[in-house]
Amino acid sequence: MPLTVSGANIIIVIICFLWLLSGDYKSKFNVIISNKLMIASIVFYFLHVIGMIWTEDISWGFHILHKMWYFLLLFPIFFTIVKKDYIKLYISAFLLAISLTEIASYLVWFEVIEPFKNATVENPTPFMSHISYNPILAFSIYLVLHQVFFNKNLSNLLFLLFSFFSISMIINMFITGGRAGQVTFFVMLSILIFQIFDKQRFNALIVSLILIPSIFFVAYQSSSLFESRVNSAIQEAISYEPQNISSNNGSSVGLRVNFAINSWQVIKENPIIGIGTGDFPNEYLRINQLNSANLPATTNPHNMYILILMEIGVIGLLSMLSIFYYQIKFSFNSSNKFLRDVGITLPLMFLVMMLSDSYLLGHYTTLMYVFFSSFLYKDFETN
């Protein structure tokens, strides 16, 4: 999943094909419709289908439907086939793949091997862009740290191995350039600290207020890439003026602010049902020419909430948020600490990440989200 798009797609096709041949469709259907999360996911997709009725750009609308098919088919398919006994294998396979990407990242960074695919020595994320890599890395760090702090059955060897990889992945987080993932890392760490201290919330708050700034300070002082990315983000936010943003100067924060301001004008004109599933590029181009013609147009506002509001309105946004609501609600009622903790952390991380990009449209992040959701929120006792 984190290594290759084509490889993951081939495996997905094989899984879906075998699922179609496996029979017992009535039982599978009952499993799906008996779960509110599954219903919420399917409704979210079909709202995009309904949004095709009033869209003018049919071809882009079908592009969006294709990008979001995970919520209609892959999520329910995974949900019906995952087994409780295999959860450790699912997670181990994922962490093994992440470990391989991390090792490759360090080999590029230390110039042991030549940079390949997306990687550079300054920003070593070979298999995917830093936009996807760092959020996935943040979630992986959480999984490993959760094992270190809570799994009392770990052997000494596994404890040392997990501890080593947790440290190496944290370092890797700050030698790569994904700011959304770095923010997500600090959010994840805060959540983990509160989970470690459980009901001792004051102690958790004190530890968070000490540990998180300390890690930030060390990373800022030791990583030139992290330092420059932080400085540029602050400078771009402080000095934001549309007329001073150039498509060539790397002002990603400024452009995102401009995307949000322009998009909000369109949202106010179509707040309830949006402009249609496929009309974001054309509508944004129109409003951009009116307000900020010197800036580039976009097909993606780099904010999942804004994208959904523009496409299918408040109804669509509430539908998307209902998916996260059912995830968190299910997790709070879980008797398994691991499933409860991870089940709460995954949606909270995505709710933060989606402020900076449309992470439910990206291949890697969406697949990770669907993959983990398929077994974190399944009641294995009743299915």
Walk me through what this model shows.
This protein is an all-alpha fold. The chain has a domain of 203 residues. It is 70% helix and 0% strand. The protein is built from 16 helices and no strands. Helix 9 runs antiparallel to helix 10. The longest helix has 29 residues. It is globular. The two termini are 26 Å apart. The mean pLDDT is 91.
Poorly predicted sequence stretches spanning 5 or more consecutive residues:
none
SS-based structural class?
mainly alpha
Distance between the termini: 26 Å
How many strand segments? 0
Radius of gyration: 21 Å
Helix and strand sequence: HHHHHHHHHHHHHHHH
Brief overview:
The protein is an all-alpha fold. It has 16 helices and no strands. It has a domain at 1-81 and 256-343 and 350-383.
Architecture blueprint of SSEs:
Layout: H1 5-21, H2 25-33, H3 36-50, H4 58-67, H5 74-81, H6 87-109, H7 130-150, H8 156-175, H9 179-197, H10 201-222, H11 224-238, H12 252-269, H13 280-291, H14 304-332, H15 337-353, H16 363-376
Characteristics of this structure?
single chain; 383 residues; mainly alpha; 16 helices; globular
